[in-house]
Write a structure and sequence with these properties.
Helices cover 30% and strands 31% of the residues. By secondary structure, the protein is an alpha/beta fold.
């Protein structure tokens, strides 16, 4: 995978270059201390991944990524954890908080590799099956509810609640929820892994819908969702907290 590194601190770039050299699947095409200088390379080369700092003097890393029309996969690397939710709203693959441990770097790169492999698979003519399967191009899934299949925009899902044999899918900007006979494993297989996270035995949340995190509670649309002890470390690690 071809990658570029953007950070206004040369030492931070050196660390990421050193990490990358230890992983055969990664090729560092270029490094930049000014994000604007990276645009020509992004437009001219086939770049699979961008490592991008957030707090930079020329332009905020989030604003820079948001300005790219054909953006590659990207991972934010920053010393500031408060941008985590905003970063995931842009569908960042991962969010690494400095100083970045090598094992977290590897985990993030493997996530990108999985996404790149999926993207390279040919898209079938029938882009979704009756079971509601989805691919990277789609922004929606179909689920069976009572006697019909209901189309749901993925970004509209705030959180999913487990109720014995059913899942209750809570939809943004509406008071209704959709009940479907399915388990969490089946549901998570259809949803973007960098956007939806299981945080409790009874809850999966859309990271982009999180309003605040209060100790062991996630607040989404004034609903407080518990964070289970066995899920806490992985969830906080995903957010760089």
């Amino acid at each position: 995978m071809k990658c570029i590194i953007i950070d206004d601190e040369p030492l931070a770039i050196d660390i990421l270059v050193d990490y990358s050299l230890k992983i055969e699947m990664l090729e560092v095409v270029a490094t930049f201390t000014n994000p604007i200088d990276a645009i020509s390379v992004i437009n001219s080369e086939h770049i699979d991944l961008i490592f991008c700092d957030i707090e930079m003097p020329q332009i905020n890393g989030i604003d820079f990524i948001n300005s790219l029309e054909n953006r590659p996969f990207f991972i934010f690397t920053t010393a500031y954890s408060q941008y985590a939710v905003e970063g995931f709203n842009l569908n960042a693959v991962d969010y690494l908080v400095k100083p970045i441990p090598y094992h977290r770097f590897i985990k993030a790169v493997l996530r990108v590799k999985e996404l790149v492999n999926r993207k390279q698979k040919p898209i079938e003519a029938n882009v979704f099956s009756s079971a509601g399967e989805t691919n990277d191009v789609q922004k929606f899934i179909f689920v069976k509810a009572e006697y019909e299949s209901v189309k749901i925009n993925v970004d509209d899902i705030e959180y999913i609640q487990g109720l014995k044999d059913y899942l209750k899918i809570h939809i943004a900007n509406t008071n209704k929820a959709i009940l479907t006979l399915m388990n969490f494993k089946e549901m998570q297989a259809r949803l973007p892994c960098n956007q939806f996270k299981r945080v409790h035995k009874s809850y999966v949340v859309n990271v982009g819908s999180i309003k605040t995190i209060q100790r062991n509670k996630i607040v989404i649309n004034d609903v407080r969702i518990p964070i289970g002890d066995s899920y806490k470390a992985d969830f906080f690690s995903m957010l760089g907290l």
